[in-house]
């Protein structure tokens, strides 16, 4: 075993626990252990598909729970069942409901059966999708599976307390914070500290000086791979010793090391760590060593394969519950009989919870199955017993533990069998039941990708832009500057942060002067750390703030894409409407030059952020309209501004901070008769130039700016255009088969537009490689005016070779 380099600071016993409190912990510890043991058995019996449990990590979590107060937040991982039960935000029945994938938010409030077991979350929204009071609640943000993925969000959760404390304008939001007196508790496994985002998050927290308390559950392994392969010197706290602050009032961390089986020291350590963190906003690390994992990593295999006999026997001796029992006996707190009785009661509690959860999971399915059997037998009676249908129904009836898919599959196959037969009561009943099952499953499995509240983007009132007769022509960046200023004045919860956003007001000056006006807590520079900039946004948005997180250039979004994709985009979905984080991510792209400055990986984004909106405004006025909409809505979005548009002149609306632009509505930029070009962003200018040149040779082009790619043309306006022109080109700067293919799918498939076409649809995209640096690199890599001209001309020449003679 590694010897800790830093001893836990001598901590006074800040927590006076009674015997009953201590034995309550002991009972909870054993309940948790029995839940882990039972959970593994359920998987092996086939009642659940996969299991990962918190055995061996019970004691540190009980100690952490004693330090966790109303108003605090958690961002953790799959081992934290003991903690969640100890703070009263999980019952064992709910725990098993999740293991069985019960698709019901009553049964599994964390994920409504959508996540594997061990994904914890509290329901933070009411029935209408509005935030509930967080200051009086014990809050857990919704877990995700990617190791260390909780860390970026944790930074944001802790950062919110700093803002709520230090910005007096935010003191009115007492539902979210009481003077920033909250701690954001993070938990992470030892091996996951190898991830880059762990180090990035720690550094960010040290720079920001925020109340973030990170616990590392160190069981020496990450699945089968031991610490030798994971951590320099095999000791994360020793490694991070440089983060230790020099003394009170100095920047840095407080670092504690404590053994995972040492109950009294764990209690003291957490009391002390949380107190400093809460009072002085000092980020804190608690390295919990000598932790065990009695059942091995998960149900996917046994740890005997990779742990030595010596290690296994050491783990047995250092099992935290065994050690707690020894301590209780040696301290004379309880006798052996009393403890044995507690363990027995704990086992019974778990058995009961498991049985009740299984019944709650299976009874509704059983009812649906019985109903299906009834209807299917009626169908057999209607259609004769000697056929494939009867065989199908017979085999369905022998399945005594069906899942919902079995029911629906059988109904669909049965209806297939009787197609063309006379309509009977049985057939109608089967049809009705199928429809009912499909409607239920849509709610169970497909709902809440987006907000369903009255603040969803589709419900934001549309306010047109207004212009004075003598509206000034200003630089595009000034339109944004005016828009942001108005929104910062309107709503004190609005804030913006990112690289170079604060002092200089972003690299293109849309925030110029705003820091001086609104203070550096609202317009803020960050380090170069895209991943935790996004996390900072997610955590603050979860806590009621209206954050604009800036990624300096679109190409660098990749660094922040993981939290966007795995955390933010699926937040509403994976909690079935239990949590939301209406973060706006602002970036700039399109028409850039250079291998890492090309600004066009749109398909990468489309494929990974479903659950967010994607706005691709062609100019800064459109961008302002989107910001105005989004800052009034409760949904997350990514806005890509055109890098080449900040210095172009635009008319300044009189209501620049008020007008809103609906998402999902394309705009026809130029009317035409012969062909429709569908595009977005900086390509709009290029396509309009080409359209003007095509007009000179007698080709009339309709140009449509889709404006948002997610959602895409919700009213199917593009099909209207194709009804007129019968021809379409999809054009953008992405790779071939990128977002042009996406737009084509949306139009041909969703809008059923193939039958409106008289010519084959075409896609015009950039080259497959990234554009080289320089104007020639751009010209020969991204679609230019001549390319657009030639594609359109070629299509028209195919229609009428006489009128449109060959050019080349
Ligand atoms: C990004 C990512 N890579 C790999 C995995 C697969 N995986 C799940 S848990 C795990 C080991 C984590 O070990 P540790 O952090 O020490 O936590 P422990 O399970 O030991 O408590 C791995 C590799 C994952 N979930 N996410
Ligand atoms: Mg581990």
UniProtKB/TrEMBL annotation:
The record places domain Transketolase-like pyrimidine-binding at: 474-648
**InterPro entries per UniProt:** DH_E1, THDP-binding, Transketo_C/PFOR_II, Transketolase-like_Pyr-bd, Transketolase_C
Q: Report which superkingdom the organism of origin falls in.
A: Bacteria
Leader sequence segment: none
User: Which metal ions or organic cofactors does this protein require, according to UniProt?
Assistant: thiamine diphosphate
Please name the GO terms that the record assigns under molecular function. oxidoreductase activity, acting on the aldehyde or oxo group of donors, disulfide as acceptor
Q: Which UniProt keywords apply?
A: Oxidoreductase, Thiamine pyrophosphate
Pfam families per the UniProt record, alphabetical: E1_dh, Transket_pyr, Transketolase_C
Is Oxidoreductase there in the keyword field? yes
Q: Keyword Oxidoreductase, does the record have it?
A: yes
- TM spans, by residue? none
Q: What does this protein do?
A: E1 component of the 2-oxoglutarate dehydrogenase (OGDH) complex which catalyzes the decarboxylation of 2-oxoglutarate, the first step in the conversion of 2-oxoglutarate to succinyl-CoA and CO(2).
This chain belongs to the protein called Transketolase
Give the species this sequence originates from.
Answer: Hymenobacter setariae
């Amino acid at each position: 075993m590694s010897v800790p380099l830093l001893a836990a600071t001598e901590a006074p016993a800040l927590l006076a626990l009674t015997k009953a409190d201590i034995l309550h912990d002991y009972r909870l510890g054993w309940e948790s252990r029995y839940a882990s043991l039972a959970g593994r058995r359920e998987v092996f019996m086939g009642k659940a598909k996969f299991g990962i449990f918190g055995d061996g990590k019970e004691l540190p979590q009980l100690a952490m729970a004693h330090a966790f107060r109303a108003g605090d937040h958690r961002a953790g991982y799959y081992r934290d069942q003991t903690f969640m039960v100890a703070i009263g935000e999980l019952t064992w029945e709910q725990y098993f409901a999740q293991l069985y994938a019960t698709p019901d938010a009553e049964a599994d409030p964390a994920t409504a059966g959508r996540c594997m077991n061990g994904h914890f979350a509290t329901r933070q929204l009411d029935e209408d999708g509005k935030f509930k009071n967080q200051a009086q609640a014990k809050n857990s943000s919704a877990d995700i599976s990617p190791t260390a993925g909780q860390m970026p969000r944790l930074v944001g959760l802790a950062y919110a307390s700093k803002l709520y404390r230090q910005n007096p304008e935010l003191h009115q939001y007492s539902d979210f914070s009481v003077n920033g007196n909250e701690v954001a508790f993070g938990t992470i496994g030892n091996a996951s500290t190898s991830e880059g985002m762990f180090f990035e998050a720690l550094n960010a927290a040290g720079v920001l000086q925020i109340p973030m308390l990170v616990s590392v559950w160190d069981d020496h392994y990450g699945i089968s791979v031991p610490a030798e392969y994971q951590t320099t010197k095999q000791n994360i706290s020793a490694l991070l010793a440089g983060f230790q602050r020099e003394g009170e009032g100095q920047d840095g961390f407080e670092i504690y090391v404590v053994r995972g089986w040492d109950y009294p020291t764990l209690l003291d350590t957490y009391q002390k760590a949380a107190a400093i963190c809460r009072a002085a906003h000092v980020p804190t690390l608690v390295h919990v060593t000598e932790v065990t994992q009695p059942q091995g990593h998960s149900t996917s295999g046994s740890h005997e394969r990779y742990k030595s006999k010596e290690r296994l026997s050491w783990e047995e001796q250092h099992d935290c519950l065994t050690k707690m029992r020894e301590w209780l006996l040696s301290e004379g707190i309880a006798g052996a009989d009393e403890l044995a009785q507690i363990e027995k009661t704990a086992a019974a509690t778990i058995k009961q919870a498991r049985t009740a959860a299984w019944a709650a999971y299976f009874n509704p399915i059983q009812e649906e199955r019985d109903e299906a059997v009834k209807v299917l037998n009626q169908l057999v009676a209607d259609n004769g017993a000697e056929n494939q249908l009867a065989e199908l129904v017979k085999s369905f009836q022998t399945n005594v533990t069906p899942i919902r898919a079995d029911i629906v599959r059988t109904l669909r196959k049965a209806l297939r069998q009787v197609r063309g037969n006379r309509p009977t009561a049985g057939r109608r009943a089967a049809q009705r039941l199928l429809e009912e099952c499909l409607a239920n499953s849509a709610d169970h499995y497909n709902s809440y990708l987006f907000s369903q509240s009255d603040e969803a983007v589709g419900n934001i009132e549309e306010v047109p832009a207004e212009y004075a007769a003598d509206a000034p022509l200003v630089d595009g960046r000034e339109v944004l500057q005016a828009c942001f200023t108005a929104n910062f004045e309107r709503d004190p919860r609005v804030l913006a942060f990112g690289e170079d956003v604060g002092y200089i007001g972003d690299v293109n000056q849309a925030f110029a002067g705003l820091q001086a006006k609104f203070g550096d807590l609202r317009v803020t520079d960050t380090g170069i750390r895209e991943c935790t900039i996004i996390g900072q946004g997610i955590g603050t948005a979860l806590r009621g703030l209206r954050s604009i997180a800036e990624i300096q250039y679109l190409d660098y979004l990749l660094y922040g894409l993981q939290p966007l994709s795995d955390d933010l985009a699926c937040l509403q979905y994976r909690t079935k409407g239990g949590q939301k984080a209406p973060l706006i991510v602002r970036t700039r792209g399109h028409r850039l030059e250079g291998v890492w400055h090309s600004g066009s990986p749109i398909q990468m984004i489309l494929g990974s952020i479903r659950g967010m909106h994607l706005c691709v405004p062609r100019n800064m006025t459109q961008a302002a309209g989107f910001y105005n909409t989004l800052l009034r809505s409760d949904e997350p979005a990514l806005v890509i501004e055109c890098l080449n548009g900040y210095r172009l002149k635009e008319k300044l609306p009189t209501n620049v901070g008020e007008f809103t632009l609906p998402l999902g509505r394309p705009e026809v930029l130029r009317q035409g008769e012969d062909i429709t070009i569908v595009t977005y962003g900086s390509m709009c200018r290029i396509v309009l130039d080409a359209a003007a040149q095509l007009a000179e040779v007698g080709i009339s082009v309709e140009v449509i700016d889709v404006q948002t790619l997610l959602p895409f043309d919700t009213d199917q306006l593009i099909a209207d255009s194709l009804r007129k022109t019968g021809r379409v080109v999809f054009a953008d700067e992405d790779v071939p088969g990128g977002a042009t293919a996406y737009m084509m799918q949306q139009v041909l498939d969703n809008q059923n537009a193939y039958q409106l076409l008289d010519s084959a649809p075409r896609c015009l995209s950039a080259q497959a490689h990234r554009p080289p640096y320089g104007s020639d690199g751009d010209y020969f890599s991204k679609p230019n005016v001549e390319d657009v001209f030639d594609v359109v001309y070629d299509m028209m020449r195919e229609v009428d070779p006489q009128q449109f003679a060959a050019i080349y």
